[in-house]
Protein 1
Amino acid sequence: MRLIVAEKNISARRIAEILAGGKKMTEKKDAGVSVYTFGDTTAIGLRGHVVEIDFEPGYANWRSETATPRALIDAKTIKVATEKRIVSLLQKLARHADRITIATDFDTEGELIGKEAFELIRAANKNVPVDRARFSAITSQEITAAFSHATDLDFALASAGEARQIVDLVWGASLTRFISLAARRGGQNILSVGRVQSPTLAMIVDREKEIASFVPEKYWQLSLVTMKGDDKVEARHTHGRFRDKAEAELARDRTKDPLVVTDMKEGTKIDRSPSPFDTTTYIVAAARLGYSAANAMRIAEDLYMNGFISYPRTDNTVYPATLDISGILKALKPSPFAKDIEWIQKNRRAVPTRGKKSSTDHPPIHPTAPATRQMLGDDAFPIYELVLRRFLATLAPDATWQTLKVLFNAGGEEYTATGGRLLEPGWHTVYPFSEAKETILPVFRVGENLQILSKSFEEKETQPPARYTQSKLIQRMEELGLGTKSTRHEVIAKLVSRKYVEGNPLRPTLVGRVVIESLEQYADTITKPDMTQTLEAHMQLIKQKQRTREDVVKESREMLHKAFDQLESHERVIGDEIRNRTAEEMTLGACPVCKTGTLAIKHLRGSTQFIGCSHYPDCTFNIGLPLAQWGFAVRTDEVCKKHGLNFVRLVRKGARPWDIGCPLCHHISSNRESLLEIPSLTPDLIDKLESRHIFTASDIAKTESPYLATILDVPADHAQRIIRDAGTAMELLRKRSECRKFMRNHIAPRKGRSYSVIVKSLASAGIRDIPALGKADPAVLRSAGISEKETSDLIDGARAHCAARIFKEIGIPAISIKKYIEAGIFSPEEFCTMQPLQIAEKTGMSPDTVFRHAGLVCKHLNRPAPVKISKTRIEKGKKELLAIRGITEAMIRKLSSAGIHDTETLLSADPRDAATRSGIPEATILNCQALAKKRLDNAVIEL
Ligand SMILES: [Zn+2]
Ligand SMILES: [Zn+2]
């Protein structure tokens, strides 16, 4: 069987269809992965990379003492399967294949994906021949040619890709960890740093600084309007921008009739046809049509996979000689562009245009098959049309303009007007995306006198440099050698998702600015493009087999160590700086209680988070928030109209954000419900309390009754009652929240089942705290929507929880409590029903310890403590028992459960009771007792 391995499922299907050549092709699913078969050939698609590199185990803990951020630099890397089903299917098929062709995309990334597949194949089948098909478009011509001229994998090219993968992992992971830990940020809030990402962000930050520090300068411009026949003509002063207002005013005042035509210059200008699309010029052109860089790439890739255009990741702007342009034109003819194609066929330029960059991997982006709007949809069709028309434009003749420049003189001041007329539209005929605006001037005669209709004197200001649009940024990244044609748009998308930049054109956020400025100050190699350019150059050398992957990675690691030398010596300063400067990110607005403090979200170590006042401890106002595991609290831009506070949102990876809204509105409404349960309060009184910023039962409990009586306008005894009731309510609330917390720890969150609803429904059944839960009727829990399994877990958990609490109060250490609970001892009473030796046996603890604990438990229950048996006595007893025929070590362990540890206790035991407790048959016990008695009697006789 011949196996074909394509980069994606969709390309596998297209390739199989093409190679089947009309023969029957079947599609089957194996473990959810499509397998295409025709004749003796099978094709499957990967999902891009099916393995990824990661550090070997032992580096997962960010706070580890040994695996520090710096340790990641030299950590060993391993490959881990990310698409397990595809990997095992590939290996299964490889075992039975007698020839395998790798048909991944033809570029560094594709070669690396191919090499990864190769390694997986080799692990499953040592001998099967593996070759490589390379193509730039999934068309029948290219595919057929590629498969009939299959070559070898280019391991040097793949190595270059691997080097980049390792360097990216190492730089990204170590620096991200370092900066995040220094700034004490974790979870959702980490500060990511990356090899390409950080220099790119630095460009955006630097541009913003230029804009901020830009000082606009005023300038003035002069122009006039005259009339020639029926045509209005505008002429500008030849001085251009006047920096000096007085000078401009003088020129304006000197401008007087008549306006004399002094010169006319006619000429022609060639307007070159555009060059073929590479990835960057394509993204820029697509941006003009309103497509974001990421979107443009996604659509182009889709069109490529479906065979409509060639591979869209290319740096090449020169069509290779082998490209059959006439063939393509012919193939494209049956499409909505038939007329344009026909025009090109008739008017084609001798040689297609060419850009500055020529590489051998892929041709420039060009169409490969005809398509209609119906086939592609409204989103993709304009992109297809753009690519097709660009292709036609590169084959079209240049356009020619006739230009005309007229010079005027008015009172000694010179003015000029320029015009342009399209003589030969050339490529503009087929490419409407760049405007060809004509300005047609009437015919003038030198020496002719005209009248000035109006003069205009405009005051203007110089403008700061523009912010980067996505496509401008991609162009700039390319100029600086940052990233590759395949990754640039992804890097920008990452900066957006990390909340480092926002908007289009792109603006840095506060965090983005602070991180870059800290890095620039302490380790600017990370923010400068130089390092990344060096790596790109080194990758070229790997491709040309002039350097090895190991060598390049080693050099990069050394560079990173140098950066760490600087970073580590300034760790505290960097951390403090980032934290202090980003504090603003967490502030919400003025404190409603003290009015002068500022409320801000606070994150503590662990997952506690709350909103507190900057005047703490003078102002203790605070609002609790759910634990960070339910979402990391961040501020949003929305502001509460009533309270002037920013809204709060909880964000969690992989989950929809939880919008809390105005934290104060939330605080009030969630507490109002429990205040309404306080019998001595009425809604009216609650309103009065709220107006005095008393929102919770605990707020009430803290007030003095005379003050409360005054603000609520109630008698003193009523105020006292309210305070008392609030205390009771707090206790109830504490129990309820403890119960809810307990529930959260024991039953999984599920859609449509809220913990507070469960807690409420249990409360109405009289289950209001954890001890009650431990004694609850399972049926009640089941009717509150808790499953059978969860019910028994919950009850056991509640019993263990209560047991742990009481044992702890008694003074038993946590480690022992755990063992008692595991042995099924849930209360002091249960503890006392058992023999200490039996407990020691069951828990594996030493009898000494158990006796000590038994003393504590009995004291708590006011009972006499059991008599302690010493270790030596136990050893001696054991010897005695072993001497009795038929008693084994195993039996001794069982007997100890019944409190039998020597001949004496054996003889005095009640056989039936001992049998139940030890699990040894009563008959055996009776037999042992008889033997023991006999031994004892004999011993007496011997005496
Ligand atoms: Zn305050
Ligand atoms: Zn509010």
Note: The CA atoms of residues 283 and 293 lie 6 Å apart.
Protein 2
Amino acid sequence: MMGTTHALAGAFLGAAIAVVAPEFAAVVVVAAVAGSVAPDLDIYHGHRRTLHYPVYGWVVAAPAVALAALVPSPGTVAVATFLAAAALHAGMDVFGGGLELRPWEGGSERAVYSHYHGAWLEPRRLVPYDGSLHDLGLAGVLAVVPAATLPEPIPAFVAAVLAVSVAYVALRKRLAAVWATVARALPAPVAPYVPERFYD
Ligand SMILES: [Zn+2]
């Protein structure tokens, strides 16, 4: 799924938690969006493995959520929300496409790595690939609740994220060609830092 879809999943999660804990709405939305995009910081090193924990993510998030419920404070609620959003991200990636330069070809059986299973989980492809129309549809659905229920600047943020999503979807297949060209043009010392799939 697109990073923007994950960001909107975070905004949705934040809006949902804000319903039950409105006094923490601001901190919850920031923590949820941050937690939702954070796992993809591993994009250039061990993508969907280094910072993606589809099982252990919940093992860590569950006690943090319990602590936040027992001792609600901006700090405990922020940590719990961040960890839950990061775990949700890793779980969502299972339902997307595989890890490859052209994921619409459906050639990869690696969706996200589970450190618990010691293996890659297979892509379910409910969202066939990141930047597909399904992905944009999901982003649009996730945007509705935060845009409708949270105060500014969240609706403006959601609209901007959706606009970026539309542009990404429109350019998705051309971008893959650009990335492959750039990867081949880079000098050898840089090569170890370029994700393997960019050399397809
Ligand atoms: Zn991811």
Note: The chain is about 60% helix and 5% strand.
